[in-house]
Every structure is written in structure tokens, then in C-alpha cells.
Amino acid sequence: MPEDLTREGVGDIGARAERVAFADLRPDSMLPVMGAGDLPLRRSDGAGRGLARDLKRLGKKTARLAPGLSAALDVERAYGHVFLFVPVAIGLGSAVWFLLPQQTSAWSCALALPAFAVTGLMARGGSARAVLLMLCLILTGMLLANFEAWRRAAVILDSPVTTTVTGVVERGEMVGPGMRYLVSITGTSEPSLRRPPLRVTLVARGRHVPFENGAAITGRARLSPPSGPALPGLNDFAFSAYFDGIGAVGHFYGAPKAATASEKRAGPTEQVERWLFALRRQIGDRIRSIAPGDAGAFAAAIITDERRAISNDTVEALRVSGLAHIVAISGLNMALAAGIFFVGLRTLLALSPAAAQALPVKKIAAAGALAMVTGYYLISGFGVSAQRAYIMMAVILMAVLLDRPSISLRNVALSALIIIVWTPSEILGPSFQMSFAATAALVAGYAAWARRGQERPHEPLPFRHPMVMSIVRIWNFVAGIILTSLIGSLATAMFSVEHFHRIATYGLAANLAAMPIISFLVMPAGLAAMLLMPFGLDAPFITIMAESLDWVIAIARHVASWGGDVVIGQQHPWFLPLGVIGFLLLTLLRSRLRLAGLPFLAAAIILFSSHTLPASDLLISEDGTLAAMKTGEGIAIKRTRPPAFIYDQWRRARRLPDAQAPVIQKDEASTPQPPARGEPLSASAIADARRGMREVGDGKFTCRERAWCTAMSPAGVIVVVVEDGRYTGAACDVADLVIAPRARFDTCRSGKPLLNVATLRKTGALEIDFAGSRVHADWQIATAMTGSSRPWSIHRQYDWRRDAYDPSLPDWLTRVTGSAIATTSDSAAKTPGSSLIDAASEIRAPDVASDFELSDSGG
Questions:
Q1: SS3 labels along 727-741
Q2: Whole-angstrom Cα distance, residue 513 to residue 507?
Q3: pLDDT tens digits along 748-767
Q4: Rounded mean pLDDT of 789-798?
Q5: Is 193 left (phi over 0), alpha (psi -120 to 50) or beta?
Q6: Pairing of strands 248-252, 199-204
Q7: Where are the alpha helices (DSSP H) in 214-330?
């Protein structure tokens, strides 16, 4: 873009091109693209002559369309809007690479990239060159994604285990009454893991003195892999954990203890990082000690991004009211902090006429604001939202230092490009998508409003009375908040629907009430507190900040009481792609070509209003401990108190009603009591189990406590969920489908389908539609993970007993789902620990023992 092209104008060439584009891209000039069959042909003076005249007019309009499109493209090039699509293309390539079910070869992309680049540079046609260069950018995104997966390679734990963990605390933060530690593992024992993760997050709820960063600790802990999708198509938490370097999550049994220091000496970078996290925790503790309760925890979250100390009720109220974005250190917090510091420093310097005339006051203020936001970022814990906000603010402030327009789509695109190049995996996260969608929409809206003001200058007010001007300023401020909240809410709505399956309908009202408090009280007081904290003068400002946040919490709870949390459900797979295409065209283009985004948005709205994925007949969690069956209009669930983390996702994604609790069978005096775990069941206990499993409740699960649960679908399919593995054989004799996580075999001898923990780990969560049949060959089964072999999912195929990777599934499940299974002749088992690995396979020998013998052998 030439240097003389500014935000206000692009010279005579751009202006002429824009006038031509506006003249030739009127709605009537776009009619030829509809086709002749869509045009109303007039026949007032004879059918033949009317048809000829209309065809002639159609030819003229078609001839005029090409120059109009060319002129519109000239406008986009003149204003530099072509650059805005560079991060879009690179991000598209990264997203495609991450979403592919199988690993793609980096060499194929690396070889294709120069070929497309050379061909594109040699192409004569502008369209062909643009397409080839776009393909080059997409391939670049795929290579960047591949490189990040290699750079961030992490070992993820394959299955839950209880072991003694020894490691070094990298950071810690308060979680309610306990602490949450990020631990770098140095060893495991009792048992010693063959494939241990390098870093884990562990919650310590016992009373203990919090350990400092760098301290060596040990303790008995329960480790589990990061959760996969709760249902097919939902969020895979193992994906984000992999790129965060976290291989397992869990909790200590009791308080951890100090251990012998690790022999490995921390490098300079690790020492600086530990010091920063220690400083962050000290700041958070200082704020919470001055202002206890949710208000103090809220204030600490805004400054240090430690959000886990806020109570669940307050977090839920903030989320339902649409104010949850305030808690995270995002663009709003960073922009307010930088803006307050920038304006304040510039105002102080301007008070001295000599300094204002001799010094570049604006640049000095920008440099000071840049230093301030850098410090803000360093104590924020390096969260994703804080990283993105810092990069964006740094680009804006650097633009001020370089005398460039600070608020422009080019700066937004540059910030997105930096983040995508460094961490391509963020392109799939809701935080990245919602943040840049809101920012791009606000900047595009501001630019459109500024152009409107230039084309239609405002007439001076007839009255210049101070009271009138005060009212005008207040109205402009309120209108600005309303417009900003409205644009931001509309821009992020489709991402909220896609990722969270819900919308906060009263978010606009909550933001109108809360944002003045945040802008004029909370952030100025917080900034002053941070500047004065080294001198011990921060207490009054922290108190002001906490009192103000008490008002915000009260607003959130009041708005949440209105019941504006609307559950939408999981959308059509094309809903988000169509919406994103329409949104990008509408916001990133300047000429009337941007109107081409409206059909895509309309298509997304049609899918939103007409398509919601219904619940299947049976939902099964990935560990088999939770199952829900559709019974007419209701939902029967296996557990009296289902885990909220899983069932809340089910409820939002499938718009489920309140679950019907199971019926617990009472033990009678004549009922034989099962022996202790590990001992085989007696014949009478097995016969009693068969009788109890056949007593299926009406529309509910019928359960024997800590043994089994059974239910029948409207189609007559009997499902038995076995908790005690010794009852698996009896369940195979009664049920049409057996879910037995503790079973050591994967197929019933009778041929009935069986799901054990090894199978469920490979398939992930399942949805089963019985299709009105008790024959499993007629069922339709959707799995969350079958067919996926990526670095963040390969741990599901690892068998620690054989120290090999095995993606094979039971024959019955393979036939129903149509999943392709590799055999031992296709690939050899790979060594564990490699993150970029193709799945190996092994064919299991068929189980020849009886179901009772197998079920009695373990539990």
C-alpha cells in the first residue's frame, strides 16, 4: 500500500475506482448472476420483441458486471484489504490440518508449497495467480500446524491410575479452599508408569502451607487423561491440554508433602517464569487479603487472571448475565488499562506547556502505555486471552509510535497473523474466534460510521448551551456503549451457539449497567493499586475496586434471575463455516462486494432456525459410568446425581429435559449377598442378578446399588450397565446391550454386544439410535473418536500391559460403525512416547471361556 494512502483517502485512483464500483455494483446490476430464468420478462408490445429487448438488456448488464467487479477489486487493493485475508487463509489451512482425522505428511505440504508458489508467480491471469497464492497460504497454515504439533509434543496419560507422584511445582493458584498445582513430573511409583506424562495439574484440598514455585513435592494422587468429547462433535479437552503440555489431571489424596529437590537445575527462562508466577500469586493473595470474598477474588482475577477462587454461584451468574468476559484478561481489560494510562500520562505531560511543545507527548504516552501493558501481561499468567489482547494492544501502540493509524482492520489482521503463526491451534478455540470476531466487527463498524460522517457532515447544533452540550455528551456515551455491546454481542453470537450451545439473551442490559462501573471505577482503581502496591499504598484503591465489583456481581445476579440463559443445542456442521464466511466478507471488504456475505449469513440463519441435532435413544459417556436413555418425551439416567461436567454438556447439546432418577432396588432378606470384591459370585447370586435385571422399570433405570442398572427403550431394547464386573456374565444373558467398564473381555459369548473400558477409550462417547430394532446390526452408532489417530488422541490406543498401540475394536462394533481397522500386517506397533505416530494394530484372539468364568476373574 503506498505511503501517501491514509485512512481518510486513497488518492484519485482509489476514489475513481470506488465511484465506478458503487455505480456499477447496484442491486439491479447484479441481476445477471441470477440467470435469465429468474428475470421478469415484460411482453407489453409483443412476445418476440419484448423477449429480444430483455435479452439485449441482459447482455448489456452482463457486460457492465465485469468492469464493476474489477473496479470493486481495485478499491479493495487500493485500501490494502487484500492483506486482511492473509491470516484468514493461513488460519484456514491450520484448521483443516487440525480437523483431519488422520495425520498428513508434512513433506507433501512442504513439496507442494514451492510448486504452487512458483506457478502462481508465473501465472499471467490475476484470478489464477490469486487462487494459487491463496493455496500457498493454506499450505503454509498446514505446515505451521504440523510444526506446532511437533514443537508442543506432549505425552498424554492413557488411562486413569492411582500412583505416587513426585515432581516440581511450576505454578500454583487458589481453588476455593485448596490449591491447584501445575507439576513437572520427575518420577512415579507404586506403580511406576511406563508412559508417564511430563506435566500434570493436581488439586490439593487438604490443609497445608502452599508450596512455592520450584518446590519439590510428592504425594499419592489419582491421575486421569484429559476429557475427550462428551458427545460426538463436541469439544475435545485433550486437544487444548496437548498444546498446553498437560498430560493428565487429577487430585492428591490428602495434602502433598515436601520431597527431595530435583537434581535438574532450572534454566534462566524457567527461573524468570517461576519468579513471575510467584509474583502473580503474591499480588493475588494481597488483593484477597484486603478484600475477602467474591469481590476480592473477582478483583484478583481481573489483575492476575486467577479465576478459580471465585465461587461457582458467582461464576454462573456472570455467565448467564453475559458478563463472564469481564473476568478474563481480554481485550476489554487490556484496552481499558492501556487507554487510562495513555490518557493520564498524556494529560500530565500536557499540563506543562514547555514539555508539550518540546517533546512528542503522544509518543511518550504510547511508550509508557506499552511498558504498562507489558507488565500487565507478565503478571497475568500468560493466558491465551491475555496473550492475544497484549499482542493486539502492542500492535496498536506501536502504530502510534510509527505515526500510523492505530485503530484499523490492518492492525487486527496483523495481530491475528502473529498469533496464528506462533500458536495455530488457537484458531479452533472459542476464545480466539470470539475475541477477533468482536474486534473486527467493532473496528469495521467504526470505520463505516466514520465514512458516513465524512460523506454526510453533521449540521451544527442550533443551541450551544452548556446543559444541551452535556446532554449530548451523555447521550453519545450511552449510545456508544449500546452500539458497542450490540455489535460485540451479534458478532460473537454464532460462536457462542456453536461452542457453548447457549445464548445470554439479556447480555446487552447487563453490559449497559456494568460497563460504566468497570470503565470509570474498577479499572482506574486497579491501575492505581498496581502502581502504588510497591509502596504499600494500594489498600484504599483495592477497596474501591472490590466495592465496585460488588455492584457488578449484584447486577449479574439480578439479570441472571430474569432467566435469559437460552439453550440452543448443537448446530448443523455447516452452520459455523457459512456464518464465518459471511461475517468475514461483510467486515473485511470495503466496497459493495461485502454484500456477498449476506447470502452466507442468511444460509447460516436458516440452518440455525431449522436444524437442531436431536438426542439419540442412548447416550454413553467415554468411561461408561454415565448413560442416559430417551423414554418418550423424558430422559432416564443411570445415576441419581450425574456428574455436572458431562451431563450439562449433554443437556445443552441435545436440549435434554430434566433427568428422571433411577429406581433403587431394595435388598430383601432372602436375597443372597454378594461376596467381597475379588471373589467369584455364587450360583444363587448370579440367578438373583438375572431376575433383578429382568425387572425393568417403566421409563426409568432400575439399579442394584454398586452392582448394575437396567433400562428398556420404547423399542424394547434392554440395556444393562454393570458397575461390578462380576455381574457381566449375567448381564450378557439378559440384555441386548451390556455396558461393563470393568469387564476384561469385549464380546459376550452369547454374541450380545458389550462395551468395556478398553473399547470405550478408543471410541470415546457414543450415541446409539436403536432404529426400532433389538438387533444390533440395525442400530446406528455415532462415536466421538473412532477413526481419529492424531497426536492428542493416540493415547487412547495405547495398551500399557503389552506396551503397544492397538486401535482394533470388537467385530460387532466394527460392522455397525463401519470403522476401518488396520491389521498387524498393515503396520507394526510403535514405541510409546512418540506424539506424532501412526496407529498400530493387533488382532485379538477370540475369547473362548464362558461369560461367567471371565466375569468372575476380575472386577
A1: HHHHHHHHCCEEECC
A2: 10
A3: 888 899 999 999 999 999 99
A4: 91
A5: beta
A6: parallel
A7: 237-243, 268-290, 294-304, 312-321
